[in-house]
Amino acid sequence: MQPELVRQAMSGDHEAFAELTRSSTGSLYGLARLILHDSDRAEDATQEALVSAWRHLSSLRDPERFEAWLRRMLVRACYAEAKREKRRHTIEAQVEPVARTAPDPGIELADRDELGRLFMHLKPEQRALVVLHYYLGLELKEIGETLGMPSGTVKSKLSRTIAEMRATADADARVPVTAGRTA
Questions:
Q1: b/e string for 6-44 if b means 16 or more Cβ within 10 A?
Q2: Which has more pLDDT, 90 or 58?
Q3: Which of 66, 121, 129, 150 measures 20 to 30 Å from 158, CA to CA?
């Protein structure tokens, strides 16, 4: 990011703000889609985050931290969107596969399906941690800045989330498959 462009936007320059957000809108939407599992809701959260960022730009203390601040706005917008959706009692989640090459596509498909099922069981706050760390590759400190929490808290919450995913996977593996059989 260009700190001078951020300062111009902070002083009310609409064009500077548009320039700043133009380059990050795609990645913000991608992050929102991973957290919310719904393209329409991800668009809503992204738009809400950008509007909120414009409204609260004067509260940004360090222009060098604009990207982390904007990601924080997005994550908060995703949380709000998830709460709205929860009130509607509609659950729809699907993790989009990440394109990778594997020797046996069947194994990759099974692994991706299992990860998708495990991911669906997570709360939006937990999905945000996983997405920021494993999909975007952010360091714990950057995630902490994005979510407004100490990096030690991020580390422990991420650890608990992964442990919960493993426990769910282990429990699913122990359940005998009886579909199609009658007793």
A1: bebbbeeeeebbeebbeebeeebbbbbbbbbbbeebbeb
A2: 58
A3: 66
